[in-house]
Amino acid sequence: VSSPGDPAVFEASTEGAATLGVGEKVTGLLTLQGESMAVFTENQIIAWQGADNETFQSNVISPASGAIEYTVADMGMPVFCDFRGIGTISTSEKYGDFERGRLSAAVTPWLAPRLQGASKGTDDDISVAGVLLVRNKNQYRVIFRDGKVLTMTMKEAPEFTIQEYRVKRPGRYADAAGAELDPVPDEWQFSEGAIDLIAACWGVTENGQDRIFISSRDYPYVLEVDRGITFDGQAISSSFTTNMGSAGDSGQNKRLNVLHFYGQVRGFATLDHRVGMDYALPEGKPVQFRIGEETDDYYRGSRPAFTKTRTSARGRDVFLKVSHESATEQPFTMQAFRWLDASPRRMER
Fold it and tell me: Are 81 and 68 in contact (CB under 8 A)?
């Protein structure tokens, strides 16, 4: 540790620098409240405190659990991942007294196997590649090597969503003898596939804009995330599938005819939906609908929007899948949907 006030001086005898040991691999460093710094290792968290080598003291915050490498971040409080979930360090009213807290109990069944993936020797690498901070959205994103992403949005109670980063890879060209040829970029054949993530980084510009980047083991470029509305000019496909719902009594057959959608749109968005009844996945012919108005000026920013669409579903329980693909439409947010005209039907009808 360098001397106080001069990070380039390491002379212990005259300048107050010191050599400190923790006995294991350090996975993160982060400033805490006051004159404290958190030292994260794989198996414990330590708080170093003091203004110089005479007032220095070391306190163990967590003696049996540390932090996974590349997951320590500052969201106004230290946030990190260990092998059991997303944790934080909070301070009590007493100065310098720190305690552990966990934020991810709601998603533990999905998250814990992934955080422990590196130590379980699984065939598929689902371990942590890193984290991304999106400060304008108040988000902490944990990215995994198979392309899956857990997004924690910090509100009064943390909210969690799961995404997957995907890319469109260039196709391969071969001559008559089977030898590979270098593809011409304008002629690449794109096919979708989950990205094999290996690293992530983030920062904020002097104007306060978030810039976040990821890289992949099998893709030759660094990619910027949450930027633009296309992937190198190609349309970006997106979709979500709901959990199974009953739209009323789950033991009663019913007829579902109308769907209402609510959201925030810049201009308009053209989507389609599919339904699946009674444990069947939502497949088959899509029904197209539009939310927002084509005449809306998207330069005015995002505005509330509502639309309704016809559907045709018969049964007891229902899955809903909504999809979108466009290289020209502006970003939008789908906030809620509601089934209308859920008419009961007798079992024999």
Answer: yes
**pLDDT over 70 for what percent of the chain?**
75
∠ Cα 78 84 88 (to 5°): 15
In the predicted model, what is the mean pLDDT of residues 66-93? 82
Q: For residue 248, give every residue at least 6 positions away whose Cβ sits within 8 Å of its Cβ, in sequence order, or none.
A: 254, 342, 344
Q: C-alpha distances in angstroms, 267 versus 237, 271, 296, 302?
A: 19, 14, 5, 8
- pLDDT of 345 > 60? The answer is no
In 242-317, DSSP assigns E strands to 254-265, 268-277, 287-292, 303-315
Distance between CA atoms of 250 and 239, rounded to whole angstroms?
25
CA distances from 319 to 240, 273, 335 (A): 11, 10, 17
Inter-residue contact 197 to 145 (CB < 8 Å) = yes
Burial 124-148 (b: 16+ CB within 10 A, else e): eebbbbbbbbbeeeebbbbbbbbbb
At 53, which helix (H) or strand (E)? none
What's the start-to-end Cα distance of the chain, in Å?
A: 78
DSSP, res 136: G
Contact (CB, 8 A) for 222 and 295: no
- The contacts of residue 171 (CB under 8 Å, 6+ apart) are 183, 188, 189, 190, 191
Task: Give the pLDDT of residue 272.
Answer: 93
Task: Work out the widest C-alpha separation in the chain, in whole angstroms.
Answer: 92
Return the closest-CA partner of residue 19 out of 58, 61, 72, 59: 58
